[in-house]
């Protein structure tokens, strides 16, 4: 369905019992984020929150898409897979041979539907332009400061519009915006993004780049701005398809080259001057659960701010998962399964992006396997597909196990896995936010082939030993005092993997420890050891895996073991992977390493005291308390 505006969506959320109005005063600086962090980590994502008393003229809506149900409501569907099914049916219809005139005529109604979804520029003003600020001032908006070491307040749900200066094609993306002055922000677009390419084209032409930023309107606009579409596909065509109604656009007042949705809540118009000096932007508590550190980015100068008379300011926070963005990512996972299957990987059955992998870090693909080497074929196809090029760890399975039951999946994968021959290491482009890479934006990748193996894929020089049912962890820790914790619970489930927390004190520490452990007879049947730093609680599997995935560069940090077996000419394979913090002193790692994101003690105390008046139900402790002992110093950058 198409929402008439953001308030229409709010009404629907309230009707469904999915919204809580908070009338108590709450400060947009740190307090809204702390409350939202507690609520969004509730089972199922908690409720959407509407803060009506922020000291500003506009209420703040947050966590509006922060559950499976609300994400479905935002897209107007009962199930996210419904969208993928519709896309797949369209692909099949369009690709089906048209042998008769009747076949061709049958297409006409669908082509008419296509036309009805295409965005349209209308004349006159839109409701987004009901009020024009006489003097544009971002300080009049309740822009959130989310975390204590953020560089300042950030606009976190900006739908940013740019155009190619040569082709005239539109791009709609989402990039955080740090507010520096009442009429100037940073523009945090990464070099891989389409808007950054537009910026470079304007730079070649020595021209100012018009930009418009939309906040609010139909929530489909926000989702479409995050969607991993090909460069030549208009995001508002996707929005029209999802809402089953074309997006009506109006020209901006001071930047008429740019058109924006007529029903948006706010429009911030302005320009980026490519000839101007960049600004030092950040840090920012990011979706990885770590701070993304300060760097140089373009300045965005505001020339106008317009808004609806009843405008609502939409926002979100990102940080240690799960947060609202996990559900937006889930929508992308389900919706874009069909295009991947129909255009790139026809053998794919299902895809899963576990929340611990924060999108790009960990992707699981299930395929219909028909021949040797098919997992590697899928690996190459997926790493060459749009934003999947940022994927760090790809796990490939087949029809032998479902991929949403992680226990069953892990059992199946480890039974099929020879760690010495079935793990493929590579290098390529990485997300700029990936702090584990030795060089920003370029690092290691890993594909774990957990499919059943054909004869051609099997190396008979390796023995496949049974998984030990247990491990004497106390004896191991006594022998190696640098080990501070071992989680061997997976062994009892026939999953041949353990987690080890280690306090590093010397160069090559993890590599050497891995060799020493695999030399022990008790480790002969253990295929994989995941190492994390000593502050991490390895008994908390989800948290430990989140830390591990963030800190690993698979090519640099993987240590494959080929241990001679007692049987002549035979070997036992194993692999250790170093998911610990990397430093200059011990790892020769030259980049700054970021801290994980936690709220400050003062904000936690304020919200504790205020909780009963918020009408949010039983008291919820701050999620940050769990991680306080895992930070290194008090700044965004780890103290070394």
TrEMBL record:
Task: Give a GO biological-process term.
Answer: ubiquinone biosynthetic process
The region annotated as signal peptide is: none
Which residues belong to any copy of the 3-octaprenyl-4-hydroxybenzoate carboxy-lyase-like C-terminal domain?
Answer: 327-449, 472-563
Pfam families reported in the protein's UniProt record: UbiD, UbiD_C, UbiD_N
Q: Which GO terms describe its molecular function?
A: 4-hydroxy-3-polyprenylbenzoate decarboxylase activity
Record's Gene Ontology CC terms?
cytosol
- The 3-octaprenyl-4-hydroxybenzoate carboxy-lyase-like N-terminal domain extends over 10-83
Superkingdom in the source lineage: Bacteria
Q: Which residues form the 3-octaprenyl-4-hydroxybenzoate carboxy-lyase-like Rift-related domain?
A: 123-321
Q: Which family does it belong to?
A: Belongs to the UbiD family.
Question: Which protein are we looking at?
Answer: Menaquinone biosynthesis decarboxylase
Question: Source organism lineage?
Answer: Bacteria, Pseudomonadati, Bacteroidota, Chitinophagia, Chitinophagales
């Amino acid at each position: 369905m198409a929402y008439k505006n953001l308030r229409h969506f709010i009404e629907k959320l309230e009707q469904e019992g999915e919204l809580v109005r908070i009338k108590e005063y709450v400060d947009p600086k740190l307090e809204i984020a702390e409350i939202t962090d507690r609520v969004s980590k509730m089972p199922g994502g908690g409720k959407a929150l509407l803060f009506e008393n922020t000291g500003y003229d506009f209420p703040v809506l947050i966590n509006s898409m922060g559950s499976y149900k609300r994400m479905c409501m935002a897209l107007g569907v009962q199930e996210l897979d419904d969208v993928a099914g519709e896309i797949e049916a369209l692909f099949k219809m369009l690709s089906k041979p048209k042998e008769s005139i009747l076949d061709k005529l049958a297409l006409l109604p669908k082509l008419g539907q296509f036309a009805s979804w295409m965005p349209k520029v209308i004349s006159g003003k839109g409701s987004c332009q009901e009020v024009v600020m006489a003097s544009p001032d971002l300080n009049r908006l309740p822009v959130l400061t989310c975390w204590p070491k953020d560089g300042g307040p950030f606009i976190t749900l900006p739908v940013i519009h740019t155009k190619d200066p040569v082709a005239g094609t539109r791009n709609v993306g989402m990039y955080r915006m740090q507010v520096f002055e009442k009429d100037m922000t940073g523009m945090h677009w990464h070099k891989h993004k389409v808007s950054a390419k537009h910026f470079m084209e304007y730079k070649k032409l020595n021209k100012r780049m018009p930009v418009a930023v939309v906040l609010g309107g139909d929530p489909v606009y926000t989702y479409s701005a995050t969607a991993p579409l090909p460069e030549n596909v208009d995001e508002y065509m996707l929005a029209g398809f999802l809402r089953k109604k074309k997006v009506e656009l109006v020209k901006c007042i001071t930047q008429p080259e740019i058109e924006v949705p007529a029903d948006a809540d706010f429009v911030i118009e302005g320009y980026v001057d490519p000839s101007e000096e960049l600004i030092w932007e950040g840090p920012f508590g990011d979706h990885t659960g770590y701070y993304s550190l300060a760097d140089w980015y373009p300045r965005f100068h505001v020339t106008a701010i317009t808004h609806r008379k009843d405008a609502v300011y939409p926002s979100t926070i990102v940080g240690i998962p799960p947060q609202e963005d996990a559900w937006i990512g889930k929508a992308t996972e389900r919706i874009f399964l069909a295009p991947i299957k129909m255009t790139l990987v026809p053998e794919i059955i299902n895809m899963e992006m576990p929340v611990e992998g924060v999108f790009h870090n960990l992707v699981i693909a299930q395929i219909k396997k028909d021949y040797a080497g098919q997992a590697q074929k899928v690996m190459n196809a997926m790493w060459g597909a749009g934003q999947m090029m940022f994927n760090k760890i790809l796990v490939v399975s087949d029809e032998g196990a479902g991929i949403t039951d992680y226990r069953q999946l892990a059992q199946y994968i480890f039974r099929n896995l020879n760690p010495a021959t079935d793990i493929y290491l590579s290098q390529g482009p990485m997300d700029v936010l990936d702090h584990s890479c030795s060089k920003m934006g370029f690092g290691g990748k890993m594909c774990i082939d957990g499919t059943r193996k054909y004869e051609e894929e099997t190396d008979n020089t390796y023995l496949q030993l049974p998984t030990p049912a247990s491990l004497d962890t106390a004896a191991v820790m006594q022998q190696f005092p640098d080990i501070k914790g071992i989680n061997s619970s997976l062994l009892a489930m026939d999953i041949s993997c353990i987690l080890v927390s280690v306090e590093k004190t010397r160069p090559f520490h993890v590599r050497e420890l891995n060799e020493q452990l695999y030399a022990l007879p008790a480790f002969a049947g253990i295929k994989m050891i995941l190492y994390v730093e000593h502050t991490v609680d390895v008994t908390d599997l989800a948290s430990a895996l989140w830390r591990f995935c963030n800190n690993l560069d698979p090519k640099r940090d993987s240590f494959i073991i080929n241990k001679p077996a007692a049987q002549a000419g035979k070997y036992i394979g194993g692999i250790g992977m170093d998911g610990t913090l990397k430093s200059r002193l011990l790892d020769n790692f030259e980049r700054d390493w970021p801290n994980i994101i936690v709220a400050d003690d003062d904000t936690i105390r304020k919200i504790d005291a205020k909780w009963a008046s918020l009408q949010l139900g039983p008291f919820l402790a701050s999620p940050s308390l769990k991680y306080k002992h895992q930070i290194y110093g008090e700044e965004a950058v780890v103290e070394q």
